[in-house]
Amino acid sequence: MVRRWVKAGDRGSAGKAVTSESSESISSRRSRVNVVWHKWSDLRLLDHEPLWRAHAQPEPVLHVHLVELPLLSGASRVARIARCSPRRAQFWRQAVEDLAGRLAERNQHLVVKAVQDPAEYFSELCERLAVAKVFAHREFCDEELQTEAAVRAALARHGAELETCWGALTVHHIDDLGFDASDRKQMPLYKGEFQKAAKWRPIREVLPIPPLRPPPAVAAELGASLEETFGAEVPEEERQTFRWQGGESAALDYLRNYMESGQLPRYRGATESFAHGDDNPVNGGTRLSPWLAFGCLSARVVVKEAREWERRHGKSSSTAKGVGKTGSTGARLHTELLFRDFLRFSALAWGTSLFKIGGPFDVKGLTWRRDKELFEKWRQGQTGFPFVDAGMRELAATGYISHLHRQCCASFLIRDLQLDWRMGAEHFEACLLDHTPDANWGNWAYRCLQRPCLVQTRAQYPVNEHVTTVEVVAWPVVHDAQLEHTLRWLPELAGLPKDLAREPWRTEARPDKRIKIKPYKDSPLWFCAANRTNWDYEYFWLPGHAWTLKLGESEHHVGGFRLGVDYPRPLVPPLNVEIDLDALPLKRFVWGDTTPELRPHIWGGSAPRAAEAPQEKGYGKSRGKGKGSPHGEGQQLGLRGLAAVLGNAVESREKQPADRGDPITSISVIGGDGGSAPSKVKLYINRDDLDFTTVGDVESTQDVDLVEDFHGAIQFPLRAAKFLSVTSVCLYFPQSFGGERTRIHWIGLWGVGTDHKRQAVMTVYEARR
């Protein structure tokens, strides 16, 4: 779409910022005036402190909005893509038109001007009018702060002044926090610390719209055409379930209706990843964020309206779970807006580091690529992961996706595609109706970019054989239980059974290795930090394991669907996550109608739930089941010990009671580092007579080639037919990965039919050099 600035030839009607310009009439009528500079982020009259300050002065007041062309039609710095999509530009235009109309109703006027450089514009304005002061909200991000400084300098050269104030940029005013938010030493590093410090601080009163002083006589001669600045209207997207109209009028109408219609009790919080069912974060948000971003509404007004509703109707308890998630839904809304405050204040403290590759935590040691082909597939929703693709297509078509989708899509780009995260942030900036630099870039850098501790773990124990953003597979189960959202945006999957539509790679994949995915401190899996601490009571429906896959080794033709033709193959190898269908916390759920044999490793309530394997020190400690866990421990035949076994061959035997035989399904081995881990194991079942002198002459039940596994996450499957009835097993480790000694720290035998055991039972160890 071509965007260019063309002066209009007619003045237009009241309330429309469409006028012609006469430099002769302007220069002949110089008078002392004050200016309210409405930026794209504060397009309102209510709760607007700069407006209050300007209209408290005796001089006429000129209201100005500058459409900064680098923000509207410029290219981004890293990915070199458009900085503002047509749909976001349309919302911006609607908000400006509404502001012009609301000012006209009060006998005021909005001057709208498209400019390359605001400082240059104000310098020219001072040459035409006797500007005393320009009143504006204070800035907090690097690019905007540079613009603010340039405007201040330009005004000073003409004897004018730029007076900025914090106003209602946040729920809690910067001067009421009790610390200097711009000082990195004082500003809390993490949101939890900030919320504790800020939650009980006072909230200032909402400023009503004051009586407005008239504009200068020449105001109507200073503007130009909005139509030729923002371009044509964008067609509506039929699949969109909610439509925003830009402007303060629409924002206030929607907020009142939201409260009066009783929707507040259903609020769960945009960032609450543990709320399930219909009122989950995908569906249960307020939808106020675009109006908050463009400043059509202040966060203080939202908190005030929520508290007033609860005062009249009573508080409703928030059902959101997790640390700090108690209280009313009004309090929960306040908490969510506090995170917005946190990112805004943090932007002040972080400075330019927010926009650098290492982010505010100066992350080093990650691999970054600028692969244009991968980036385009991500942007277009062609990654092969339905939850990601549905979100990316919705974003491109509507300018909005839920916070959960944003986290998943962003983390997938960072962790699995390993693309420069700033490319993703720039795409979100262009598309999101609710983009602000602090919230968008802050979420990317604070929530999705790995912290240094996680980078160190991943460097030590790289995960390249499967996707690490496990949420892209697990979250759709509870956040899109009916597949309504996924199929709305991925119609090419509508002909598949539901379980294959969730994970279309199942049409040509077979399971390979069973691995542990339960997160813990510094785990390389899962991006959401809360998943490392809240697992036991929030993810009880996940037994804690998944299967790696070999794609292209099996094929199930379903209605002519072809993976790679009708829908893309995954850009990174996926996982099949084990699900306890009977434990899902959902009233309505559809998994699918594919027969069980075509959906292996999707467990019901009677299936085995695997137990935890201890983690080797240095990679992260395993978290045991918490008290009151909804599900019990699994069935593991454990063989613990061998803290430091010397020699190039190790033999061990575990003997079960003679009157029973049990199946064994897989084996895990934690070995030493430095090449001392065993590279192969030979298994012999029900052979109590074997020792080092005879084991080499006997054919093993199965040989397993091992990999260096330092945390017990990999389970090597055994041939089911040969391990159905096991009374004893002999494990022979003939060689290591090259170390002088073979070291084994832990051996796990996994099976069904026995009570859970974490101790050695009738075990014999034998080691030789």
Automatic annotation (TrEMBL):
<feature type="site" description="Electron transfer via tryptophanyl radical">
    <location>
        <position position="444"/>
    </location>
</feature>
<feature type="binding site">
    <location>
        <position position="267"/>
    </location>
    <ligand>
        <name>FAD</name>
    </ligand>
</feature>
<feature type="region of interest" description="Disordered">
    <location>
        <begin position="601"/>
        <end position="635"/>
    </location>
</feature>
<keyword id="KW-0285">Flavoprotein</keyword>
<feature type="site" description="Electron transfer via tryptophanyl radical">
    <location>
        <position position="421"/>
    </location>
</feature>
<dbReference type="InterPro" id="IPR006050">
    <property type="entry name" value="DNA_photolyase_N"/>
</dbReference>
<feature type="compositionally biased region" description="Basic and acidic residues">
    <location>
        <begin position="651"/>
        <end position="662"/>
    </location>
</feature>
<dbReference type="Pfam" id="PF00875">
    <property type="entry name" value="DNA_photolyase"/>
</dbReference>
<dbReference type="GO" id="GO:0003904">
    <property type="term" value="F:deoxyribodipyrimidine photo-lyase activity"/>
</dbReference>
<comment type="similarity">
    <text>Belongs to the DNA photolyase class-1 family.</text>
</comment>
<dbReference type="GO" id="GO:0000719">
    <property type="term" value="P:photoreactive repair"/>
</dbReference>
<keyword id="KW-0274">FAD</keyword>
<dbReference type="InterPro" id="IPR010400">
    <property type="entry name" value="PITH_dom"/>
</dbReference>
<dbReference type="InterPro" id="IPR014729">
    <property type="entry name" value="Rossmann-like_a/b/a_fold"/>
</dbReference>
<feature type="domain" description="Photolyase/cryptochrome alpha/beta">
    <location>
        <begin position="33"/>
        <end position="170"/>
    </location>
</feature>
<dbReference type="InterPro" id="IPR008979">
    <property type="entry name" value="Galactose-bd-like_sf"/>
</dbReference>
<dbReference type="GO" id="GO:0005737">
    <property type="term" value="C:cytoplasm"/>
</dbReference>
<feature type="domain" description="PITH">
    <location>
        <begin position="664"/>
        <end position="769"/>
    </location>
</feature>
<feature type="region of interest" description="Disordered">
    <location>
        <begin position="1"/>
        <end position="23"/>
    </location>
</feature>
<dbReference type="Pfam" id="PF03441">
    <property type="entry name" value="FAD_binding_7"/>
</dbReference>
<dbReference type="InterPro" id="IPR036155">
    <property type="entry name" value="Crypto/Photolyase_N_sf"/>
</dbReference>
<dbReference type="InterPro" id="IPR002081">
    <property type="entry name" value="Cryptochrome/DNA_photolyase_1"/>
</dbReference>
<dbReference type="Pfam" id="PF06201">
    <property type="entry name" value="PITH"/>
</dbReference>
<dbReference type="GO" id="GO:0071949">
    <property type="term" value="F:FAD binding"/>
</dbReference>
<feature type="site" description="Electron transfer via tryptophanyl radical">
    <location>
        <position position="368"/>
    </location>
</feature>
<dbReference type="InterPro" id="IPR036134">
    <property type="entry name" value="Crypto/Photolyase_FAD-like_sf"/>
</dbReference>
<dbReference type="GO" id="GO:0003677">
    <property type="term" value="F:DNA binding"/>
</dbReference>
<dbReference type="InterPro" id="IPR037047">
    <property type="entry name" value="PITH_dom_sf"/>
</dbReference>
<feature type="region of interest" description="Disordered">
    <location>
        <begin position="651"/>
        <end position="671"/>
    </location>
</feature>
<protein>
    <recommendedName>
        <fullName>Cryptochrome DASH</fullName>
    </recommendedName>
</protein>
<dbReference type="InterPro" id="IPR005101">
    <property type="entry name" value="Cryptochr/Photolyase_FAD-bd"/>
</dbReference>
